[in-house]
Amino acid sequence: MKLNELLSTKKFKIVDSDEDADTLAYTAEIGKRTIRYYAETYKKGSTNFVYIEFAEILRGTGRHSFKATGSGAEFQVFAFVKWCIEQTMKKWSDAEVIKFSAAKMEGLEVSRRPEVYEKLFKKFLKGWKITKEVSGKEVEFTIEKEHGTA
């Protein structure tokens, strides 16, 4: 099966959305999971930034978890994240830098999520340069629009 088919938007259901000039948020149900995506734009000097984060809302607690929960449906979660980023880029097409982080460690285990996110961004964000910095138990990504890219 092709990656584009695996990351089909038909695999999740948007149950909530919120948007204003500087923020964008979506909540999706994916199987028995609830995933929340949040993005905000800001300006630093003359550069337009977008900061994004996504987390699972733990059932029964309302708390957000940024850790892998092992509850399955990974491809559907990645499809949701991909779709959200597409919506973010449509909303803020003048963005020059995207920042986000992913857990490098899950307890004592090394997480593969940063590697998967990096591959997804390289495939779907053409014309953007991806750099990463390991900081403690996280990998911080900076994705910059390459010069001369529309």
Can you offer a commentary on this structure?
This protein has 150 residues and is an alpha+beta fold. The chain has one domain: Aminopeptidase (3-Layer(aba) Sandwich), CATH 3.40.630. It is 23% helix and 45% strand. The protein has helices at 3-6, 74-91, 113-124, and strands spanning 13-19, 23-30, 33-44, 47-57, 64-65, 97-103, 105-106, 109-110, 128-135, 138-145. The strands form two sheets. Strands 1, 2, 3, 4, 5, 6, 9 and 10 form an eight-stranded mixed β-sheet that branches. The protein has a two-stranded antiparallel sheet with strand order 7-8. The protein starts with a helix and ends in a 5-residue tail after the last strand.
List the helices and strands and how they pair.
Blueprint: H1 3-6, E1 13-19, E2 23-30, E3 33-44, E4 47-57, E5 64-65, H2 74-91, E6 97-103, E7 105-106, E8 109-110, H3 113-124, E9 128-135, E10 138-145
Parallel strand pairs: 4-6
Antiparallel strand pairs: 1-2, 2-3, 3-4, 4-5, 6-10, 7-8, 9-10
